[in-house]
Write a structure and sequence with these properties.
422 residues, alpha+beta, 32% helix, 20% strand
Length: 422
């Protein structure tokens, strides 16, 4: 690719004086060569010494210009960069992309001379990037090159990729786009000797508070054989979430709804959701006018259709649904827009009561109503363990009941109990 340098780093043309100086220098060199040739012709031939065992070896690899495990920040107004880190040659320069914007161009070369290129997104003013070399696994012979480029904008985003050369080929792992500047260096978070990447769950940004007041729990990614995995749920990383829960708890108790969301999320990762939930219920700001997240009553991979959105009347109900949608706890029940059956799949009905409910439209409505009431009660209850125990008792009591009037009475009584929780 023909490189179009950033004008900020373009060289100036030489002046006339420089041209005369170059001509005189060339003449001097030519005269010296002629004199040397005449002198050698007149001198007697001398035997040359034998080459030592070290002569003729390939030159040693150039010394590193920068240490590993440290980000090197580059901007096009600094001129092109040529660094050697961990045996890799990293060259950074600016180029014009197809939109006429200045984009960073990072060329990576391994010890064998095999190259690959990384291009970042362009901007109208200058190009910038950051790069580093790390060794994720000390038992691995290969090191990894991290490249971070910025997309621009007030709060977004650093695009992070990992590159490594194996068996004469470069391979790339996409580590995603993350809010803010370049991410932190990977660290061994679970004590197994292998480094992981710690990011934040960006779904929490703006969800329950403004950007400045938002808190986001950690997200942990691990690269194994070139594949990126989200390992946040692994028990080995509970200490990471315990520290985050301790930090966000302080702000939650100070009536920060953004912090409360992160607090219960991190607490859920370490098995303390019920205790954190009770604290959240007593601390969250009930007077906040921030628009809460909404659920969709139809299955869709895109934007929720008009009329299918479900709003929540309270912060705890919205938070409970949100945590379920993002994998921190079980999903909260959301009644489908055109529901006809009960809250469970009739294809999986096994008990006498479940089969009776599936055969009765009236009981199906009661079952969906109970599911909605239980979801609400779970969000508002300060003793969620006791609530779950009482629901298990109800399910056990109705299990072998097939009489519709009896089941109707049981359901109506239980729904009343759940709705009384506030």
């Amino acid at each position: 690719m023909t490189q179009t340098p950033d004008p900020l780093s373009s060289p100036e043309p030489p002046n006339c004086f420089g041209r005369w100086a170059m001509a005189l220098g060339a003449a001097a060199i030519l005269g010296g060569w002629i004199w040397s040739t005449i002198d050698k012709a007149a001198a007697p031939t001398r035997p040359q010494p034998l080459l030592s065992s070290q002569t003729g070896l390939a030159p040693s690899a150039p010394a590193d210009t920068d240490p590993m495990d440290i980000w090197v920040d580059w901007r096009s107004d600094q001129g092109a960069a040529d660094r050697t880190i961990g045996g890799y040659r990293i060259q950074a320069s600016s180029t014009l992309n197809t939109d006429g914007l200045y984009a960073p161009r990072i060329q990576l070369t391994d010890a064998a001379g095999v190259t690959t290129e990384v291009f970042g997104e362009g901007t109208g003013y200058s190009a910038s990037a950051a790069f580093a070399v790390v060794k994720l696994d000390p038992a691995d012979t290969a090191s990894q090159v991290l490249v971070s480029t910025f997309t621009g904008g007030a709060h977004c985003c650093s695009v992070l990729s990992m590159h490594e050369s194996r068996d004469g080929q470069w391979r790339i792992a996409d580590l995603g786009s993350w809010d803010g500047d370049r991410p932190a260096m990977p660290r061994d978070l679970d004590g197994d000797g292998v480094k992981e990447f710690q990011f934040v769950d960006q779904a929490f940004l703006y969800a329950f508070a403004s950007y400045a007041e938002s808190w986001a729990p950690p997200v942990i990614h691990k690269v194994t054989n070139g594949h990126v995995q989200d390992v946040s749920k692994a028990a080995a990383f509970r200490a990471v979430f315990a520290r985050d829960a301790a930090e966000s708890r302080t702000a939650c108790l100070d009536r920060s709804n953004g912090a409360c969301a992160a607090y219960v999320a991190s607490a859920a990762r370490v098995g303390r959701l019920d205790a954190a939930w009770a604290e959240m219920l007593g601390a969250y700001d009930q007077a906040s006018d921030w628009i809460l997240p909404t659920a969709c009553r139809v299955r869709t991979a895109g934007t929720c259709p008009v009329g299918a959105e479900m709003t929540f009347s309270t912060y705890p109900e919205a938070l409970q649904w949100f945590l379920g949608e993002h994998g921190y706890t079980d999903k909260a029940y959301v009644e489908p827009l055109s529901a006809a059956g009960p809250s469970f799949s009739c294809g999986a009905a096994r008990t006498i009561s479940e089969r009776a409910i599936c055969q009765s439209p009236e009981l199906s409505v009661l079952d969906r109503t109970l599911a909605v009431a239980y979801s609400r009660a779970s969000a508002l209850s300060r003793d969620r363990a006791a609530l779950r125990a009482s629901q298990r008792a109800f399910n056990s009591m109705r299990r072998d009941e097939g009489n519709e009037p009896t089941l109707t009475a049981m359901y109506e009584r239980r729904i009343g109990e759940l709705l009384s929780i506030d």
